[in-house]
Specification:
The complex is a heterodimer of chains A (194) and B (181). Chain A has 7 helices and 2 strands. Chain A has helices spanning 3-13, 22-32, 43-77, 101-110, 133-147, 162-166, 182-193; strands at 89-90, 129-130. In chain A, 8% of the residues are buried. Classes of the chains: A mainly alpha (194), B mainly alpha (181).
Chain lengths: 194, 181
């Protein structure tokens, strides 16, 4: 068999055509299909969508930031309702704003470590935290000062006023008398004689 | 309210009216190609038409990324070929089941169907020789024999280099000639 014969046979074998209604059936099947993404890309729609998304994002971020800033100081002090009871803090006798500082500090002399004022309950999950009366007093002073918007640079100490704490005692230094060495004087005189 | 929304949507988004026209052109010029590819595998007119129709519907679904003519035809050929092979395997399995259950003495469905289209014994021998080719050689010789495709067009349809097409066609013709000698 030659190449020409083979080509002829192949051409005859593949010379087939579909039936006359084939194209119509394909058109019907295509029409029955849902349209394939009939909406093409539109720049105005894309710009409008992007602007809307950006506006929503900016609004949400601003609202979130302002809410976060306003709620952050409270977050330190507040306890969520679902949270377990806060640890019991035992302190020395409470420091009130009317009580002068030296009087409060007297209790420290009797006991360095305070006894828990509130017994732990069965429902509490945290252990009782024992805070020394010094720390409690200092914390109270800080809180009062913060509420009064005037935080002192130096916290007043027990029985010592701020003025005394900042005063440096004078140093007593005795006068020093310096006398020349006798041997060196003689040596200098001998050098001159020579 | 709905009218205003429709107006707004219409001003922002427009349906692609040219898409259907383009697909109609591709359908007219490529439907016979799809049919012949399917027929070369399945050798049954109605099955080949079904397969070609299925491939064209798939092409319509993906037509947005197949608007390029060459890309469309290459995709259509590959899809039709795969679909036809799947149908052929399914037909063979079904024929084996039917023969085993109903009438063991009757001829297989494929043979009786082929008789409708293959007029002479010589054509039957040719088809048998084509079927015996490895798939890579078979698809190359089929595409080269359909619609007068040259080597470059076959290479484009298969997405392979022209040198590869040449060597495959040479091997396929050699084996066909040996089988038909």
């Amino acid at each position: 068999m030659t190449d020409h014969d083979l080509d002829q046979q192949l051409a005859a074998a593949f010379d087939v055509a579909p039936s006359s209604d084939f194209l119509a059936r394909v058109r019907t099947a295509v029409a029955a299909e849902s349209a394939p993404a009939r909406w093409h890309f539109s720049w105005p729609l894309a710009v409008a969508g992007s602007a809307m998304v950006a506006a929503i994002g900016v609004t949400a971020s601003i609202g979130w930031l302002s809410r976060d800033m306003s709620s952050s100081p409270r977050a330190v002090l507040s306890v969520p309702p679902s949270a377990p009871p806060a640890p019991t803090v035992a302190t020395a006798p409470a420091v009130t704003s009317n009580t002068p500082m030296p009087e409060v500090s007297r209790s420290r002399q009797r006991s360095r470590m305070a006894v828990p004022a509130v017994a732990p309950t069965a429902s509490s999950t945290f252990p009782t935290v024992i805070v020394s009366s010094d720390d409690a007093r200092g914390l109270g002073v800080l809180i009062r000062a913060a509420r009064a918007a005037s935080i002192p640079a130096v916290l007043p100490m027990d029985n010592v006023s701020v003025k005394d704490a900042l005063t440096v005692p004078r140093l007593e230094i005795a006068p020093v008398a310096i006398e020349p060495l006798a041997d060196l004087t003689r040596l200098e005189q001998g050098d001159r004689q020579q | 309210m709905h009218e205003r929304a429709a107006l707004l949507a219409g001003s922002l988004v427009k349906p692609d009216e040219t898409l259907d026209r383009e697909f109609e052109r591709r359908l007219v010029e490529s439907s016979t190609l799809a049919y012949r590819v399917a027929f070369s595998v399945i050798r049954h007119q109605h099955d080949a038409e079904d397969i070609a129709q299925e491939a064209m519907v798939k092409a319509y679904r993906n037509f947005r990324r197949l608007r390029d003519r060459e890309r469309f035809r290459a995709w259509l050929v590959r899809t039709t070929w795969r679909t036809a092979l799947d149908r052929q395997r399914a037909n063979r399995r079904r024929a084996v089941r039917e023969v085993a259950v109903e009438a063991p003495a009757t001829a297989p469905v494929g043979q009786s169907v082929a008789r409708d289209h293959l007029a002479s014994d010589r054509s039957a021998d040719l088809w048998a020789a084509i079927d015996a080719l490895p798939e890579k050689l078979r698809v190359a010789i089929v595409l080269a024999s359909i619609e007068g495709h040259d080597i470059r067009e076959v290479a484009t349809l298969l997405g392979i280099p022209e040198g590869t097409v040449k060597s495959r066609l040479f091997l396929a013709r050699q084996r066909l000639k040996e089988a038909l000698r």
